[in-house]
């Protein structure tokens, strides 16, 4: 349950067509995407918490049989159908026509659920006995019933009615079961005291398939043919040969195979992941921290460890036996091992180099040795030491070649490789050297000389064609002898330190990295330049953590031994699933709402007026890289970079149809379309929010002002004045996007001007234009300064004089627009110099606007707006008062045409300014006998 299951007692499993694993328990439904569980219960709409069976219909809906009946789940909602019976159900199937078949064992009744109705199938029929079990064969579409008379009958549904056809008979104690991955009807039973036999039902006859013996709590199974599969019989699980479980289990209730071919068990103590037989792990006790493996001529394996000494393993003998060095070694730090042409073994140790001649251990060098290799041509062992290599001939002679003779400054030689020309390649934490034993010359490759792409070479491997592959800090590298250059193999999947390399076959390499094992198609890369990696980790069979430096060894039987930080593993290459498996991407929510499973042809509608969309998605599949990433795109645009985020947010979209696509990985190369997911949605915006609207609005505005200019030009008394106004307004219209004005407001003003002109009230129209021109100019000036408010400084503020000018312009316009509905008075204390006082732009205007729109205009009487500015102690005090309707009044429809700046937005802006270094506080109080009083206080040192 700590992994996310709603309950440990699993009653049913189902692997659906989308790659999800559905887990039914006695306390809720769980959906597993390969990494995390989602839980569903009655709170989410499920009929009942207790689950008896799970399947899927042709519409892609999950069919869940609960204690209270059937629930159909389309991914977004449940539809529930209460059952007409009360007993516990043991068998539940969904056929190809979406009928749900239910066998109620207590009464021997079979129900067929179709179109929301439960039908009793055997009612009124003459039966040979009491039904004991039911089985459905999907391929043939047949139902089989086992009656207490020992017979197995096929249930035939014809147009003339329902009848039973006897197929076979079983012996006493045998049962019809479900549990074959070959999806055939099976019969199981105990035929002798300790024997268990499995039969397959074929053409009405039983064929002996599998036999096992009860050697303990779990039967030992012997396969008689390749039917093999699993068998759930009275709580036991009998896996095919070689399968192993991720953890122990008891009382298996169900088993399924997922889309990637892996088996999952639902047991009484949780969900169990079964791995294939390719990897075999050996317990780290009593020999943890194995660092190297070597095989002697007798086929025995020698395991060198960190801190626990040396162990010898022969076939059939486990655990390996500890080896006594006879006092020839100090610290039991065994880092490397090899065998020479005479069968002598060598072990590198921090205290020196040990040689085993088949009888005794002998210390032959005091150098600390960290890597070993055998040169068969020259019949000598090459040992990596601190800033040196040691050459040890089979006759016992030694030669040390140190840093001073040309080796790069290595601290110690970590890896050794011998190429087809007999050159020694020597890698360390700081670089790489190539040494020619014939000439004694070194060729160094380091970051400093620009010949190594990244410091550190920890493993070196000549492949089947003599090409040199390197592993290090920058991942996998390859040496090109034609250009004498080392280049990295770029990959989005393999993105960690490479510590071990081995030849897997004549095409591929096995790579040990910090986050698991990788299989690499080297031939494909060299021929096409395409990197293809497949990862193996705890999700698909390899449970080790961080394979060690040069921790691979291939023995004479073809097994690859893998030493890691946690345990020792043995890989059988012939049994490894080398096929490519992709994660399936699935969009689960759009704009916060769950999506149904089937939606590819549907078009989702975004809320009218919303210019953005949000998609939430996940990766589905059991085999997963260490960190799952996603790529997505909109309307065939280039794919995004791989990202670990599982939410895509799009803003500023225009009206139109959109297609969102997502894929999971990371992978090198393309992801097949069948593993991608996509949704189609449509956005609809008001015309004034479309992309074409701002230039059109400016054009219409210019046309309107041009028409007004023509009429005013004919009026000689206003011609010069109107020309100046038109010039100012034209400039302001070009900068309309910088102003924070509502488009409705601009059009209402223009409509008023046009109306005055048409009615012949040209002087009033002129006054409107004058006020509008001054107001917009002040708004633009203030907005221009306010756009830079992210950084403090005088250039980001305006003077109190400019703020007052803005307020006056705005108030005068509102007075004109309301036919003088209110008066205005402004009082500035004598000790204040407005030109010298600076403050954030447009700080007072929103409060003034609220006083007019919400206080004065709704009042039926003529009102008064008063602004007083003074110093109180060290603070600038500004009071804005009105004698309008007051705080508790709600404006009527006549005053709802303008959307005022709300209190929340005012508070957020002041909060932001305070975060930027200001100290501004505001209070709003009711004014007696009516009206509103707003006080704004600004600390003097911040003005």
Short description:
By secondary structure, this protein is mainly beta. The protein has a 5-stranded antiparallel sheet, with no helix packed on it.
Q: Describe the main β-sheet briefly.
A: 5 strands, antiparallel
User: Distance between the terminal alpha carbons, to the nearest Å?
Assistant: 59 Å
User: How many extended strands?
Assistant: 70
Structural class: mainly beta
Number of helices: 8
Shape: flat
Give the % helix: 10-25%
Major sheet: order of its strands? 17-18-19-20-21
Strand percent estimate? 35-45%
Care to describe what's here?
Helix 2 packs antiparallel against helix 3. The longest helix has 25 residues, at 762-786. The chain is mainly beta and 943 residues long. It is flat, with a radius of gyration of 41 Å. The chain has eight helices and 70 strands. The strands form 18 sheets. It has a five-stranded antiparallel β-sheet, with no helix packed on it. The protein has a five-stranded mixed β-sheet with strand order 65-67-68-70-69. A four-stranded antiparallel β-sheet has the order 1-2-3-4, with no helix packed on it.
């Amino acid at each position: 349950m700590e992994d996310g299951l709603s309950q440990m007692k699993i009653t049913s499993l189902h692997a659906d067509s989308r790659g999800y694993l559905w887990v039914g328990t006695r306390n809720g439904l769980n959906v597993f995407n390969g990494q995390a569980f989602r839980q569903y219960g009655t709170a989410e709409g499920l009929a009942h918490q207790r689950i008896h069976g799970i399947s899927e219909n042709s519409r892609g809906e999950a069919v869940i049989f609960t204690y209270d009946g059937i629930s159909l789940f389309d991914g977004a909602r449940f539809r529930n159908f209460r059952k007409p019976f009360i007993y516990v159900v043991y068998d539940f199937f969904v056929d190809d026509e979406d009928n749900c078949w239910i066998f109620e064992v207590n009464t021997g009744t079979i129900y067929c659920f179709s179109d929301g109705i439960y039908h009793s199938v055997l009612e009124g029929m003459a039966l040979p006995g009491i039904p004991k079990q039911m089985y459905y064969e999907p391929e043939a579409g047949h139902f089989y019933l086992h009656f207490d008379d020992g017979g197995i009958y096929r249930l035939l549904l014809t147009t003339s009615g329902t009848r039973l056809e006897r197929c076979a008979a079983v012996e006493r104690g045998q049962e019809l079961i479900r549990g074959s991955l070959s999806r055939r009807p099976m019969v199981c039973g105990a035929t002798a005291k300790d024997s268990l036999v499995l039969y397959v039902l074929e053409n009405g006859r039983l064929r002996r398939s599998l036999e096992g013996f009860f050697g303990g709590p779990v039967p030992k199974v012997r396969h008689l043919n390749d039917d093999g599969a699993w068998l759930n019989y009275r709580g036991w699980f009998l896996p095919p040969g070689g399968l192993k479980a991720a953890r122990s289990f008891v009382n298996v209730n169900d088993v399924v195979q997922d889309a990637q071919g892996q088996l999952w068990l639902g047991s009484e103590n949780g969900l169990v992941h079964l791995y294939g037989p390719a990897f075999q792990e050996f317990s780290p006790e009593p020999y943890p921290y194995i660092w190297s493996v070597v095989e002697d001529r007798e086929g025995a394996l020698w395991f060198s460890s960190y801190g626990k000494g040396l162990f010898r393993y022969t076939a059939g003998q486990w655990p390996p036996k500890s080896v006594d060095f006879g006092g020839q070694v100090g610290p039991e730090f065994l880092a490397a091992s090899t065998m020479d042409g005479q069968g002598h073994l060598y072990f590198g140790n921090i205290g020196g180099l040990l040689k085993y001649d088949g009888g005794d251990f002998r210390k032959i060098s005091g150098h600390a040795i960290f890597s070993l290799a055998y040169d068969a041509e020259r019949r000598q062992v090459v040992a990596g030491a601190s800033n040196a290599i040691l050459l040890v001939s089979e006759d016992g002679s030694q030669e040390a070649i140190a840093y001073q003779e040309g080796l790069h400054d290595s601290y110690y030689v970590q890896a050794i490789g011998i190429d087809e020309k007999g050159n020694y390649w020597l890698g360390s934490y700081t670089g790489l050297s190539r040494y020619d034993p014939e000439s004694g010359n070194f060729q160094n490759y380091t970051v400093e000389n620009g010949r190594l792409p990244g410091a550190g070479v920890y493993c070196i491997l000549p492949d089947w064609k003599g090409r040199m592959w390197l592993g290090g800090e920058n991942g996998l590298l390859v040496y090109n002898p034609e250009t004498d250059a080392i280049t990295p193999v770029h990959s989005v999947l393999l993105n960690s330190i490479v510590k071990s390399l081995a030849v897997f076959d004549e095409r591929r390499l096995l790579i040990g990295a910090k986050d698991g094992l990788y299989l690499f198609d080297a031939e494909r890369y060299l021929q096409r330049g395409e990197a293809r990696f497949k990862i193996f980790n705890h999700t698909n069979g390899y449970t080790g953590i961080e394979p060690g430096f040069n921790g691979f060894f291939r023995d004479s039987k073809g097994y690859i031994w893998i030493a890691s930080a946690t345990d020792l593993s043995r890989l059988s290459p012939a049994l490894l699933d080398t096929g490519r498996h992709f994660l399936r991407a699935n969009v689960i929510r759009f704009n916060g709402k769950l999506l149904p499973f089937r939606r590819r042809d549907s078009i989702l509608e975004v809320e009218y007026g919303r210019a953005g969309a949000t998609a939430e998605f996940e990766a589905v599949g059991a085999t997963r890289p260490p960190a799952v990433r996603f790529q997505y795109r909109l309307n065939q645009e280039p794919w995004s970079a791989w990202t670990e985020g599982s939410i895509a947010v799009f803003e500023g979209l225009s009206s139109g149809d959109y297609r969102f696509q997502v894929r999971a990985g990371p992978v090198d190369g393309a992801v097949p379309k069948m593993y991608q997911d996509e949704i189609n949605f449509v956005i609809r915006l008001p015309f004034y929010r479309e992309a074409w609207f701002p230039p059109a609005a400016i054009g219409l505005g210019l046309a309107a002002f041009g028409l007004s200019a023509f009429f005013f030009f004919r009026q000689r008394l206003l011609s010069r004045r109107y020309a100046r106004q038109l010039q100012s307004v034209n400039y302001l219209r070009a900068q309309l996007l910088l102003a924070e004005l509502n488009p409705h407001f601009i059009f209402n003003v223009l409509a008023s001007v046009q109306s005055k002109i048409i009615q012949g009230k040209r002087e009033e129209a002129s006054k409107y234009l004058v006020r509008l021109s001054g107001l917009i100019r002040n708004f633009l000036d203030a907005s221009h300064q306010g756009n830079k408010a992210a950084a403090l400084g005088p250039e980001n503020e305006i003077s109190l004089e400019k703020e007052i000018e803005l307020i006056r312009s705005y108030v005068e316009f509102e007075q004109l627009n309301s036919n003088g509905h209110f008066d205005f008075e402004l009082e500035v204390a004598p000790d204040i110099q407005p030109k010298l006082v600076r403050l954030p732009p447009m700080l007072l205007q929103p409060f003034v606007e609220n006083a007019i729109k919400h206080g004065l205009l709704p009042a039926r009487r003529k009102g008064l707006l008063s602004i007083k500015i003074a110093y109180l102690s060290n603070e600038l005090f500004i009071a804005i008062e009105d004698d309008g309707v007051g705080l508790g009044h709600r404006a009527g429809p006549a005053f709802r045409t303008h959307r005022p700046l709300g209190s929340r937005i005012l508070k957020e802006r002041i909060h932001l300014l305070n975060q930027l270094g200001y100290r501004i506080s505001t209070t709003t109080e009711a004014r007696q006998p009516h009206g509103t009083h707003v006080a704004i206080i600004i600390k003097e040192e911040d003005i």
